[in-house]
Structure to design on (484 residues):
């Protein structure tokens, strides 16, 4: 599967599973429009989850869906259509009014309709897609609560076209391996018999052809199982030297655990609040002597527990956002600790904390001196102001405004224009895109009678800020040379 998928294109170039996985991992919000004239269907996404779907295809309407599912009779269907034409009400509401459905039946029926619309799209082999990224209008109160992994799993299960499956898989001489990315590996997917059998044969060494031959399944069923796992991103193509596999059994990796909701939410809240105070070692629950396999095993265990895809039935609306933040933080910790060079640099950063604390203290003292300098400047005591600003630049030499105000104070003192110029050039070096510094330097040159230099600085200021008043007024004081 490709890492990047465009937001619009052709289904002959990008499969629906690829598109759905990409939108889910990028946590996109908006509408995916798929068209295969005369049919047009839409899937609505919120933070990467498919929450609703619609279709202009007659057979995808709610009444037709319920009729085909055997939920309502033909007589009930015909009566609801007749009332729909008379009243313009929604067919679902009419069926409830007629007593053909209970509100609970209607809720389940709409969710069934949404899933069936999405599943039907997996059968499309051609057509156009376009994702419109924008906030959703809150018109639908019934939303699909189903993990993207299971949604894709069920949709792919309906594909029975050998030519298509063969064409979307790597060559049979290729080798597949488990994905190293827990975001793909620990999706909420209820794998079935054939898929588990095939997955147990994937070892990062055996070719697709050999797996098919050793599976005991028909060639079609074996390849379809591999296709399902490959489309979900659980399996990826092995390219080059593979990373060392984690020391965990297949059962440990794939075992699905459903924690008690209230206790889990409290656990997530506690970790989320304290996550920025934890070191990478504390977050992964390992000590600083842990080897790479221990680190990876800890990461896999936690990534599986906090995978955002595994908690769609929760009543906590903010849970996915918290889980996403925790998952990202776990991944960052793992990326640093698994690499010896990055780990050494991270550990050295602890030695720099005391230095950082000193820098922070100096920054506070510098700001205090700067504020006192402003007070003295306003009172007209430019000498005291200059001393205070100079002290601020020593404590925090990277703050351009301290150098700028030091220059301004010096410019008010006799025989200090050269020092004022040097100080202001330091401010420009720190903030080369700030028009105010060039305008002040222009005024300094104007005061010294260096009109050509002054003009050049005023023009620089206006390049960054065409409305800078200091520069405009300064230029107005420099007469244009008379034409010869």
């Amino acid at each position: 599967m490709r890492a990047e998928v465009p937001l619009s294109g052709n289904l002959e170039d990008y499969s629906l599973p690829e598109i759905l996985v990409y939108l889910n991992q990028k946590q996109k919000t908006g509408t995916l429009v798929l068209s295969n004239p005369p049919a047009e269907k839409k899937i609505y996404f919120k933070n990467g989850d498919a929450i609703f779907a619609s279709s202009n295809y007659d057979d995808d309407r709610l009444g037709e869906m319920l009729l085909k599912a055997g939920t309502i009779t033909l007589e009930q269907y015909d009566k609801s259509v007749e009332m729909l034409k008379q009243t313009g009400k929604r067919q679902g509401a009419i069926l409830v009014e007629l007593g053909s459905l209970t509100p609970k039946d209607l809720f389940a029926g709409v969710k069934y309709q949404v899933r069936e619309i999405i599943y039907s799209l997996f059968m499309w082999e051609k057509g156009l897609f376009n994702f419109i990224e924008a906030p959703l209008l809150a018109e639908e109160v019934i939303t699909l609560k189903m993990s993207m992994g299971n949604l894709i799993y069920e949709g792919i299960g309906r594909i029975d076209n050998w030519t298509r499956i063969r064409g979307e898989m790597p060559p049979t001489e290729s080798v597949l391996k488990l994905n190293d990315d827990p975001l793909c590996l620990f999706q909420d997917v209820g794998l079935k018999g054939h898929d588990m059998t095939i997955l147990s044969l994937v070892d990062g060494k055996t070719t697709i052809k050999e797996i098919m031959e050793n599976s005991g399944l028909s060639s079609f069923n074996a390849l379809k199982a591999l296709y399902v796992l490959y489309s979900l991103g659980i399996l990826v193509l092995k390219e080059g030297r593979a990373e060392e596999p984690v020391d965990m059994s297949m059962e440990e990796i794939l075992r699905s655990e459903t924690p008690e909701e209230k206790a889990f939410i409290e656990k997530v809240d506690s970790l989320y609040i304290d996550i920025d105070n934890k070191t990478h070692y504390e977050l992964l629950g390992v000590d600083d002597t842990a080897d790479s396999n221990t680190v990876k095993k800890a990461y896999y265990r936690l990534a599986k527990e906090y995978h955002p895809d595994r908690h769609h039935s929760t009543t906590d609306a903010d849970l996915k956002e918290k889980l996403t933040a925790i998952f990202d933080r776990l991944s960052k910790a793992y990326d640093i600790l698994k690499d010896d060079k990055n780990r050494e640099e991270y550990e050295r950063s602890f030695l720099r904390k005391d230095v950082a604390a000193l820098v922070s203290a100096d920054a506070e003292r510098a700001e205090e001196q700067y504020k006192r300098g402003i007070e003295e400047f306003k009172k007209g005591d430019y000498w005291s102001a200059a001393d205070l600003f100079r002290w601020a630049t020593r404590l925090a030499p990277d703050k351009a405004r301290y150098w700028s105000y030091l220059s301004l104070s010096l410019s008010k003192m006799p025989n200090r224009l050269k020092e004022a110029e040097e100080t202001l050039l330091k401010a420009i070096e720190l903030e080369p895109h700030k028009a105010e510094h060039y305008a002040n330097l222009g005024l300094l040159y104007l005061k010294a009678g260096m009109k050509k230099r002054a003009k050049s600085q005023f023009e620089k200021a206006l390049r960054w800020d065409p409305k800078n008043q200091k520069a405009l007024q300064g230029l107005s004081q420099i007469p244009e040379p008379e034409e010869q």
User: Anything to note?
Assistant: The first helix runs from residue 16 to 25. The mean pLDDT is 84. The two ends are 72 Å apart (CA to CA).
